[in-house]
Amino acid sequence: MIKSSGNKTKVAVFISGRGTNLKSLYYFSKKKNSKFQICIVISNKKYAKGLFFAKKNKIKSKIFTFKNRLKDELKVLKTLKRKNIKIICLAGFMKILSKEFIKKFRGKIINIHPSLLPKYKGLNTHIRAIQNNDEYSGCTVHYVTPKLDSGKIILQKKIKIFKNDSAKSLQKRILNQEHKIYPKALKMILN
Ligand code: GRF
Fold first, then answer.
1. Alpha-carbon distance 162 to 53, whole Å?
2. How far, in Å, from the CA of 166 to the mean position of ligand 1?
């Protein structure tokens, strides 16, 4: 559990693309009793759609390409320290953070993954679940450790895979659930 003193816990959200999970976290943070506030968005892509949302809603954002990972991670760490960030939410962030970076934020980085972990770590989770004729898929919020998609699970939502599901239709239904469980999981670890 993550304790913050008095005020709202300061959160950074890392993105690479659309940013729909960023949106859902942001709207949740604006609810009356929310315990966190999104203070910065970090993107490795200059034109990530989520950056437009951040700008529109006056959330600070910074771009680091991560082409030189160690150098950029040091810069990110400085930024996070300056802003007194206590939790990092990875939301469609497509870069792998170094062991050293993760250690510095041990137990304070969480991620949303579109499968029922430990099944289907990595990419293309929806098509893999369909091709394996799985009955269910879903999404998972978990702590980030140096081992990809393997940290302790905080919250998971299971949904049925329909016979006529395509990767796209399944992705859409799972994404809807992601938007619900990500803020919920964050709330849980802040209690
Ligand atoms: C989501 O499906 C998330 O589970 C995965 O990347 C996708 C990001 O979507 N890690 P968005 O950028 O939040 O819309």
1. 33
2. 17
